[in-house]
Amino acid sequence: MRGIVRFVINRLKGIRYAATGAWHLIRTEASIQAQAVIALIMTWAGFYFELTKTEWILQLLTIGLVMAIEGLNSAVEKMADFVHPDHHPKIGIIKDIAAGAVFIAALIAVIVGLLIYLPRFTG
Predict the structure, then answer these.
(1) Contact status, residue 20 vs residue 62, Cβ threshold 8 Å
(2) DSSP letter at 76?
(3) TM spans, by residue (predicted)?
(4) What pTM was estimated for this model as a whole?
(5) What pLDDT shows up at residue 93?
């Protein structure tokens, strides 16, 4: 029984750490703040255009994907700056790769958004 209680307590601590990290990310990172504004606009659009359940799932998954990868990108940048505060070409490549992952996710999100919303404008 103690093992189960310890397991639950550790999971709750993990959730608290994750929530603290997410809150820090939203409070301090301009890129996440911009993504959050876009997410709110797209959520409003979803209600306005009465998305289907499948469309909501796709929209929420793409919003989550972009924001999660943006968070990982921010973590990579902070770690790279911590490890090597001065400009270094290899650190620059690492940061570019992380930013490229965000770009890919954002591009997919735009495509999903076009597939969902464009038919509503073209009839």
Answers:
(1) no
(2) H
(3) 32-50, 56-76, 97-118
(4) 0.86
(5) 96
Tokens of 7: 């397991």
Q: Which region, left, alpha or beta, applies to residue 84 given φ > 0 means left and ψ of -120 to 50 means alpha?
A: beta
| H or E element in which residue 49 lies | none
Distance between CA atoms of 93 and 105, rounded to whole angstroms?
19
Quick check: 59 and 51 in contact, CB under 8 A?
yes
CATH number for the domain running over 30-122: 1.10.287.3610
Mean pLDDT of 74-87: 94
| 25 close to 71: Cβ distance less than 8 angstroms | yes
Strands (E), 1-123: none
Rounded-to-integer distance, Cα 40 and Cα 42, Å: 5
Catalytic site residue from 62, 63, 66, 70: 70
What is the C-alpha to C-alpha distance for residues 95 and 47, in angstroms, rounded to an integer?
Answer: 36
Catalytic residue status for 55: no
Residues annotated as binding site for substrate? 70
The whole-angstrom separation of Cα 60 and Cα 54 is 10
